[in-house]
């Protein structure tokens, strides 16, 4: 492995540093992000480099972090705020839903809200209660917000740069289970990735596997196993949950005729339902089997002793793919 | 053994009694004709706007409207003490503040008439649109103040909140961060004694709301919110301190909501006629008029002339408002994101088709 290869977590740090170096209006704020460099170390070294005025340790108040970011953003600054864990994002909701998402529309573009709210999310790291949930669907439901989830170091770097440069409010959810899972060589070239497209990670002809975030790892593993058994899987990382790139998903399923949607979040009202419904509407003629979902259950996220029972795994995906492949009208 | 770790006090500033007579020797700065005549004229304009807005609502030409009746002095003096480059973060009762800061009256009516373009006037510059959820504006004000401070712009932010809003966490979090970071922000509580139907006495047991500042380590004080001279003094000093980098201030302006909460409310269900009558005796507009009369700065002829001029101004604005062209249906889709996403563009097409059907007098059904 190349010594210069970096993890997803380090890619977040690299993108933050790059954005701050490029634009003096980019300011980081959050709990423990300064001296401590963040509880996951996402902002390590940045206060040292950019100073206390641009990497700001806030009082412990998530409502305040969100509200302050809205106010800063209306004046043309680009605050990048960290909510320490997604489980603590709820006090920020009123500001996201009632203000950030609406600022541009309700002033007809006189003001906008170019803020980013970053939060680590998802299970699988044996964290305490409230530290492992995946509530992206709650956010993706809100018109005016962008919801972006990277699944690799390269996409973390490119999508975070895009999120910071974007003139809309962006919720950037970081799959913490894969923060340090793999390393990739990334050139710090300041190149952002598009926020309006899915990423096709693997092309295939029999079935489309659709996922995002940490579950991309299991999804790719499943595709490998299935390939050995002669099933050709196309794997798509949705990456931008709202606004979502329906066109790529519809085109892929129109080609393969089958799909399995995989997410860690609970099934009911989840993004899988939205995607399945869209495919039902727009790829109906091509469908050889009903869209299938592999998801977390509609329970609480269990405490860590049972979290592996909750999280979908590679076997779950392989089983769902085989059932979908064998489906007969 | 015990010792006292902290002891605080809250000052109340007032210069005029209820009748507009001086409570003591008036400071020199209070004795000229200006800015008091200007303030008075703006307060009359605010009241006429309010009366007109309510009558437009009652006749189906405006949506639900939140009256500012009784808060004219607070609104007019706060806005007048602000500089153009200061930033206003208003809540939904600050019509006169917005008017004074340059928003055309027709635009204000447009907002309450259900048209988002009422928040998009270029005259509003960097001011925020009305905050309707309670107390959230206090945190936005802190965010704006943070931006000003980081950019080393020596301007101030002013935000207004009702007495009910001070019960909310956002308000306390805002005071806290404003203190911790010494932000250039002035929080004004329009303590009009009623949060819809819940009286001030049921919001909080503390004898003053201003003392909530003490918990955040910032300056807190009360002012008679119906006394334009006292407001001029207290708000002006707070704004100057903010601009000079001397930190935030919480000002509790004691006033009274002479109106219903909004046009959808009926305050006779929960408060007595006697209480309202007593509050009218403290009316800020009449109080300042009495003071001006007493000082020889105002008379009946000027009063009648100004009332007539104001009436014309408002009527012209109402005519402008009623003549505004319909909003293009595309606006709703085109301004949600910086660029309209493809999924939304599909819905925009559907909306255009629906609008076309409506314009053709169709029922909306295929």
UniProtKB/TrEMBL annotation, chain A:
Highest taxon, organism lineage: Bacteria
Boundaries of every Transketolase-like pyrimidine-binding domain copy: 6-181
Needed cofactors: thiamine diphosphate
PANTHER family recorded: PYRUVATE DEHYDROGENASE E1 COMPONENT BETA SUBUNIT, PYRUVATE DEHYDROGENASE E1 COMPONENT SUBUNIT BETA
A UniProt-annotated Pfam family: Transketolase_C
Stated role: The branched-chain alpha-keto dehydrogenase complex catalyzes the overall conversion of alpha-keto acids to acyl-CoA and CO(2). It contains multiple copies of three enzymatic components: branched-chain alpha-keto acid decarboxylase (E1), lipoamide acyltransferase (E2) and lipoamide dehydrogenase (E3).
Name under which the protein is recorded: 2-oxoisovalerate dehydrogenase subunit beta
Protein species of origin: Marinobacterium halophilum
Keywords annotated in UniProt: Oxidoreductase, Pyruvate, Thiamine pyrophosphate
Gene Ontology molecular function: oxidoreductase activity
SMART domains to which the protein is assigned, alphabetical: Transket_pyr (SM00861)
From TrEMBL, chain B:
Keyword Nucleotidyltransferase applies: no
Residues in coiled coil: none
EC number: 1.2.4.1
Keyword Cytoplasm: no
An example molecular function term from Gene Ontology annotations: pyruvate dehydrogenase (acetyl-transferring) activity
Cofactor(s) of this protein: thiamine diphosphate
Keywords (A to Z) from UniProt: Oxidoreductase, Pyruvate, Thiamine pyrophosphate
Highest taxon, organism lineage: Bacteria
SUPFAM superfamilies recorded: Thiamin diphosphate-binding fold (THDP-binding) (SSF52518)
Domain Dehydrogenase E1 component, residue spans: 41-319
Pfam families: E1_dh
Biological process, per Gene Ontology: branched-chain amino acid catabolic process
Catalytic activity: N(6)-[(R)-lipoyl]-L-lysyl-[protein] + pyruvate + H(+) = N(6)-[(R)-S(8)-acetyldihydrolipoyl]-L-lysyl-[protein] + CO2
PANTHER family (UniProt xref): 2-OXOISOVALERATE DEHYDROGENASE SUBUNIT ALPHA, MITOCHONDRIAL (PTHR43380:SF1)
Function as written in the Swiss-Prot or TrEMBL entry: The pyruvate dehydrogenase complex catalyzes the overall conversion of pyruvate to acetyl-CoA and CO(2). It contains multiple copies of three enzymatic components: pyruvate dehydrogenase (E1), dihydrolipoamide acetyltransferase (E2) and lipoamide dehydrogenase (E3).
Subunit structure: Heterodimer of an alpha and a beta chain.
UniProt xrefs under NCBIfam families: PDH_E1_alph_x
Name by which UniProt lists this protein: Pyruvate dehydrogenase E1 component subunit alpha
Source species of the chain: Marinobacterium halophilum
Taxonomic classification: Bacteria, Pseudomonadati, Pseudomonadota, Gammaproteobacteria, Oceanospirillales
